[in-house]
Write a structure and sequence with these properties.
DUF4461; alpha/beta; globular
Length: 492
Amino acid sequence: MFYHWCTVRRLCPKKPLLQLVIQARGLSGADAINALRPFYFAVHPDFFGQHPREREINENSLKRLNGYLENLQKPGSRSFKPTELTFYVREREQNSSNVQEPFAASGFRAVRFTLHTRDLLSTVLDILKSCSLSTEHVQSLNGGGESQSNQKTERTFHRPIKWDKTYYSFTGFKDPEEELEQAQRMETTLSSWLDSNEKRAGRKLKNSLPLRKELDRLKGELCHQLQLSDIRWQRSWGIAHRCSQLHSLSRLAQQSPEAPRNAKGRTVIFTDRSGMSATGHVMLGTMDVHHHWTKIFERLPSYSTLQRKVLLLEDNISHLLGGIQVTYVEELQPMLTLEEYYSILDSFYNRVRNSRLPFHPRSLRGLQMILESDRYAPSLHELGHFIVPTVCDPATLQWFILTKAQQAREKLLRKEELALLETELIKASAEKFCLQRLYKELSVSSMQMIHACSRLLEEEALPYLQGMHLCISHFYSVLQDGDLCIPWNWKN
């Protein structure tokens, strides 16, 4: 989530900026970010703290949008794949004087659109129009670009830059600077927040207990009936929502008992769309009707050929890159269908094969890499995985892997130690405070979880936590079923 805040911080600088010159032919990258300010304020995940599902969808969509915008700015880029995005857009505040409620009465609405334009200006306009946001500020900026393009001298603004007015219309805040000062004076601490929210969380948790038992019962029955390996959820949906999805699957199994039998031994994941995942799990889209689910179950046997092709491509890429293992990690990558993953592998394989990189055979055995289509520079994850863009320059890739190989091996060895330490600290923290459950969000790294649990164990007493469900996150929140969310780096 931090990269979203970096975007917002760029929109609200502390120093006067040099006036940007907008060319008549389109917008620059900085101008595009400026023009999208109303959009960022309307969909920013941090404003959806009480709605984890919508917050996570916006996080993932913003990540894909940033990749699309970066691709538009990359010199020489000519290949653009249409990108479908879904955002939850906050409604405008009806009563701007009411600063107590950050959401309007109508809450938010879902917006889905597809990006297919090849320049920044058209893309920015499409995004704003799709979300029913004003485009006047973009058109006026672009219109004045021609007269300014011949100016070679740079001028500074005559007054400090203030936040865009759309910030006030969406949040209802009177003055962002005053809000920041007040937040600094009244900074939330762990004990003060628990003191203020323990009773509300306790009531919600008590009300959710019958549904939690029902969820466990339904999941156990369906796993036994359909002989499934497991049933999981991609997003942090509430207990009632999960029960509803299991009831739908149970009705399907009763109405069409033959089709679900094809899922024997597999894991079913409730997610945003239906299909087979890159890891071979059955994806059931929560917005799809039973007819679509039935088709997916019926098609499962036909996926075996494609799965073999995926494994063959992974082996071929590994052979070309010195034996490094190509893998797919659900926690680090977006949920891809098997068809999408095959397309990524095939594209990367052809790119590497044609470049004929001189890796020594089996010199990189024991190392691991994952492929991502929305990056442009390789990186090394803290857990030791190489994160490789599918469009990465082969020579750059070779240099990066060879120079980081030893560091990657050390991180992979350290990963096992971290996993063991994280498990031990979670168990110790849960026992010390008599927690019913202690877990973390997927966006919280192992190092952050270890840091949070270590600090929890240093606390002398937190009686409010007894019997609660505690989630280590990036923000404070009480979920709809009574789970307490606290940031991993809370303040004492």
